Amino acid sequence: MPTEAPVKTPTKTPTEAPEKTPDPEKYYSPKRLCDDQKRDGGFRTAPQK
């Protein structure tokens, strides 16, 4: 019983967690774009990579 539990948990966690985190951050950060747009007024958003 204590073997099937830790095997089903670390399998769905490290697969759905690291794949959903570096995905949006590696492509385009919606939180960073919002901060840049609010700071620059929507001017320097793309060239500020």
TrEMBL record:
Biased-composition ranges, Low complexity, are: 1-16
List the residue ranges of the region (Disordered).
Answer: 1-49
Q: Point to the regions of Basic and acidic residues compositional bias.
A: 17-42
**UniProt-recorded name of the protein:** Uncharacterized protein
Q: Which organism is it from?
A: marine sediment metagenome
